[in-house]
């Protein structure tokens, strides 16, 4: 029942038909309303944001020895998550009966806040290990990586580029980010300052 409702609400938003949901679930509309007294209650039950295993994403990155490849692992996992999250979140926050404040109240701390914290902590550990440049701000880097993958997924949903964006495009974004993260090459010595 909830899977049928989610399909309809993701496609049609709050205007999704309870009659269609009941038909897809193989029950009568009255049986649907016995279980959920209002359409808003059904909407909220069906549109629970998918959970994210932020710890597992970071663990996969940490298991990757090459820091540049680990960044690709993070980006790929984040993009897959946002491709699940955004189709659910857009109808949720756009529903005039619910709104963003209710969503925050009902579903608690956003998964995004957890991810930002975990990815920032991972990047800080990488920095302490000398695997990324010492001048990089881990929080800013985390925000850039998350914003980039979030934007790609959002553009998928609203159709602003080919769906899905080719993997080479994500690699190019990560490579650009890596240019700022790469630790300095210790084999190249800085030129000596001339005395004047």
Domains, number: 2
Q: What's the total number of strands?
A: 0
CATH class of the largest domain: Mainly Alpha
Measured as a percent range, the helix fraction is: 55-70%
Q: What does the radius of gyration come to? A: 22 Å
Can you give a write-up of this model?
This protein has helices at 2-12, 18-25, 29-35, 39-46, 54-62, 67-94, 99-107, 111-128, 138-158, 167-181. It starts with a helix and ends in a 15-residue tail after the last helix. With 196 residues, it is mainly α. The protein folds into two domains: 2-46, Arc Repressor Mutant, subunit A (Orthogonal Bundle); 54-181, Orthogonal Bundle (Tetracycline Repressor, domain 2), CATH 1.10.357. It is elongated, with a radius of gyration of 22 Å. Helix 5 runs antiparallel to helix 6, helix 5 (54-62) packs parallel to helix 8 (111-128) and helix 8 (111-128) crosses helix 9 (138-158).
Give a quick rundown of the structure.
The protein is mainly α and 196 residues long. The chain has ten helices and no strands.
């Amino acid at each position: 029942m909830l899977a049928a409702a989610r399909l309809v609400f993701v496609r049609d938003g709050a205007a999704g038909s309870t009659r269609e949901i009941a038909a897809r679930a193989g029950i009568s509309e009255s049986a649907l309303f016995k279980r959920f007294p209002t359409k808003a209650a059904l909407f909220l039950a069906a549109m629970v944001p998918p959970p994210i295993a932020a710890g597992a994403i970071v663990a996969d990155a940490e298991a990757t020895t090459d820091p540049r490849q680990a960044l690709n692992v993070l980006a790929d996992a984040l993009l897959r998550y946002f491709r699940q999250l955004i189709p659910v979140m857009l109808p949720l926050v756009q529903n005039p009966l619910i709104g963003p404040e209710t969503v925050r109240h009902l579903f608690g701390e956003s998964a995004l806040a957890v991810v930002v914290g975990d990815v920032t902590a991972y990047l800080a550990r990488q920095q302490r290990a000398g695997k990324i440049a010492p001048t990089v701000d881990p929080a800013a880097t985390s925000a850039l990586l998350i914003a980039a993958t979030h934007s790609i997924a959002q553009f998928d949903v609203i159709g602003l580029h080919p769906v899905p964006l080719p993997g080479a495009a994500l690699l190019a974004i990560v490579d650009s980010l890596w240019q700022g993260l790469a630790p300095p090459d210790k084999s190249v010595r800085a030129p000596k300052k001339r005395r004047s």
